[in-house]
Design goal:
Rossmann fold; 4-stranded mixed β-sheet
Length: 238
């Protein structure tokens, strides 16, 4: 099976190494010579792993769809303004994508755990939620996509209090740390996920591609949590 990776940065190359180890043929695309990649750049691929920059997502998906490709793994952040447009394109072409701010399996489980704790502590009362995230100095977006997703999940959990304070640190070369805390007068409860390198993210991206290949998925955007659910419950969701 051949995969095309959009994005030749550290994350793109980490995914390439993961896929090659799993026996996949891989093409890594850097910035195109022209304004956008041509459809021919995606020909022959089974899956596109989109890990470039936010402003390129819609154009890359459009070009890949024109080549006949119908499976996407989207880990790029900062494309929220184009999300509806991209989903409309996928649905109109019968294509499916797994899209998430992070493909760390640990982060996906952290999202669920934070939402569950938020709901339970909200019923107890007296706890204030907060989020701290630390990434390498060169990371452009702040807060991180994972931190924003954590804040959204806490809001959806019915926590019933103020929105969580989100603090971002950009320093050094940390690949990523996320801490979710709940502070009360007498105690603080914390959940922390620290990445040592990009291998977990690359593994998650491969698992998302495998999930898309395992069965025909409904057109549109799917969250990485569906992939994790399939693994942890030993069943394949529709």
């Amino acid at each position: 099976m051949q995969s095309v990776i959009c994005g030749d940065g550290p994350m793109g190359h980490a995914i390439a190494d993961e896929l090659v180890t799993a026996g996949h043929a891989v093409r890594v695309l850097g910035r195109p010579a022209g304004a956008d990649h041509p459809a021919s750049a995606f020909e022959g691929a089974a899956v596109v792993h989109e890990f470039s920059i936010g402003t390129a997502v819609a154009a890359n998906v459009t070009a890949a769809l024109a080549s006949g490709l119908r499976r996407f793994v989207i880990g790029t952040t900062g494309w929220g303004e184009d999300r509806d447009r991209v989903e409309d394109l996928l649905v109109s072409q019968g294509a499916a994508a797994v899209a998430a701010p992070t493909f760390s399996p640990g982060a996906a489980i952290l999202l669920n755990a934070a939402a569950q704790l938020g709901a339970e502590l909200g019923r107890v009362g007296g706890y204030d939620p907060f989020i701290v995230e630390w990434h390498r100095a060169a990371k452009r977006d702040r807060p991180s996509g994972t931190a924003l997703a954590l804040a959204q999940r806490l809001a959806e959990s019915g926590f019933g209090m103020r929105e969580p304070e989100v603090a971002s640190v950009r320093a050094g070369s940390s690949p990523g740390m996320h801490l979710v805390g709940f502070d009360a007068l007498g105690e603080t409860l914390e959940l922390r996920l620290t990445a040592r390198d990009r291998r977990s993210y690359a593994t998650g991206a491969r698992l998302a591609g495998d999930w898309l290949l395992a069965a025909r998925r409904s057109p549109g955007l799917h969250h990485f949590s569906a992939v994790i659910e399939a693994l942890t419950t030993e069943r394949t969701p529709a």
